[in-house]
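Please go through the protein record below and explain what the tokens say about the fold. Record follows.
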Amino acid sequence: MTKPSVPKGTRDFSPVQMARRNHIFSVIREVFHLHGYQAIETPAMEHASTLLGKYGEEGDRLIFRILDSGDFLKDVDRSELAITESRELTGKISEKALRYDLTVPFARYVVQHQNDINFPFKRYQIQPVWRADRPQKGRYREFYQCDADVIGSDSLLNEVELIQIISKVLERLKIPGWVLKVNNRKILAGMAALMGAPERITDLTVAMDKLDKIGLEAVQKEWLERGFSQDAVNLMTPLLEINGDSEDKMNTLRLKLADIEVGQKGIGELTDMWQMASEFIGKEHISFEPSLARGLNYYTGAIFEVGVPESGIGSIIGGGRYDDLTGIFGLAGMSGVGISFGADRIYDVMETFNLFPETSTMSTQLMFVNFGEEEEKFCMKAAHLLRKKGVRVEVYPGQVKLKKQMQYANQKSIPWVALVGEEELKSGQITLKNMESGEQQKFDTDALADYINRSHTGIAF
């Protein structure tokens, strides 16, 4: 018999892990709400044609395809089964795919529901996505993204607001040492023009985006392999080795791209955004990185990426401006900008630094010990009243030895147990035991509810 398992790159989540994940989702959702974002959801699967061609060649290879239902070979000519190029055959037997991210499905949603949307439209989405990537630390095949986007406005205020959201979420999660890297795709377009190949920005950025992983020499080699001349590579290399702080780098690039209009526009947008954002974020948390490319083809303006260098986990947030993503679905000129929190990587970072609050794993606040039939009836009624007042309560489901019931409470980290015996039945009061200190107090039901609700940490004595 085969041992039960899950596919590589996917995971089960225990109650403790789920409680911690929900803590992350709750913080992110609350900050989204503070800024006026509304929730939507889209299906796990989309038509393959909706997704393909939106993420570049490498992205397309990572899209999980879904075989057509039933006899998927029924309408395929037998001669086509001899096709050696798998992608040609895949298109004939697979019309659907699992979503690769939440942004392209959002663009499809906007076009499909445009008559019901008030623009600018501020939406958020917290849902899983799937990528046929090679599993490794911090990289999964199934993972959650928490996206916030504004569409229908080209104002840089939106970029600044998203930077505020990033800062608030990470501060509330108490993540240390995070750095927001920023760039602008127009600056990268200016670099491509400087190399004499303005139409080849994708070839330029696909290699550049790997700089932190493979190093400058490997990037240079890949540029040459992609057909750039040695002169062009020599011209580009100094732009990736600019010294100084972020403002020095901006000033240097402003001079280098002085004669390139698109590059100057990108520098101007970046400068304006930087000046506004600096009011809300410390200099230690933001950095201009000329090599930041964010390889997705749909970005056209500002691009963002957040990492926690000391964690060794990689980027935890990414995003950017896209001027016409909805145009591929028939709605031209609809500019948008968004960010995506990688909840699974944020979880890994918080676990690495032991940042989860103890209360994030607390489910049940109070457990009634079960001493017998009469006591059980009393406890069930008391639990019902406590739940109406917002207390998370359970009654132990069986009249077993006290030791076993207390072990159960300890294993679930329940901070209090309620003891109801003959004396309590007569008095109508409940004896509350603190599981950490062992101290006991007596309360009636209403007073007990107020006491527990005032105890935010779960331990009050």
Q: What stands out?
A: Residues 15-34 form the longest helix (20 residues).
